[in-house]
Amino acid sequence: MAAQILVVEDEPHIQELISVNLTRAGHAVRCAPDAEQAREMMQRSLPDLLLLDWMLPGMTGVEFTRLLRSETRTRDIPIIMLSARIEERDKISGLEVGADDYITKPFSPRELIARIAVILRRRVPQVTAEVVRVAGLVLDPAAKTVIAKGQPLSLGSTEFRLLHFLVTHTDRVYSRSQLLDHVWGPEFVGDDRTVDVHISRLRNALLPAGLDHVIRTVRGSGYSLSAA
Ligand code: CA
Prior knowledge:
With 228 residues, the protein is of the alpha/beta class. Helix content is 40%, strand content 20%.
């Protein structure tokens, strides 16, 4: 399970410790020393998960979490808050503003990695290798195979990633720019047409199994995959 993780931590040795261990666990890690720089990095590319220190110079981790939760683009990013503060009320206020989990320093790298895995499985299922069964489809991320009503599909890598994202986020409407963000990454230079082209290829691939209808076009909004 490899995820893009952004570590926001102002203490260099802790940043280094986290970075080394997460990289060893297979994750792609970027680091920022404060919320302002983290925000800049997130303009370019959204991470799968944010590890956020509570006590930061400038905006605190709690304030930053509140800000991220208030904006559409960043509202759903999983956040694990790190803190040396051990008081229960601090933990509660971290979770109240929308953090997914809270880890108290000092922590063991093994515990951190395990807690990240739990959050990723729950919140970012498209980066895990778990087999997904939905709407007559069986998608195996590790084997890179898709079976549609018993028939194996041949998909390009972009169609595969697009389908993986949709089957792990069923019954929600995603705009073309959200799909570009999640499936292609914001560094990709393309436009809405790109998404339409790949959705069309995906539907064509699903057509022989009679499953092309599972991907709905929501006029004026985007696309959605129906689980039922
Ligand atoms: Ca700190």
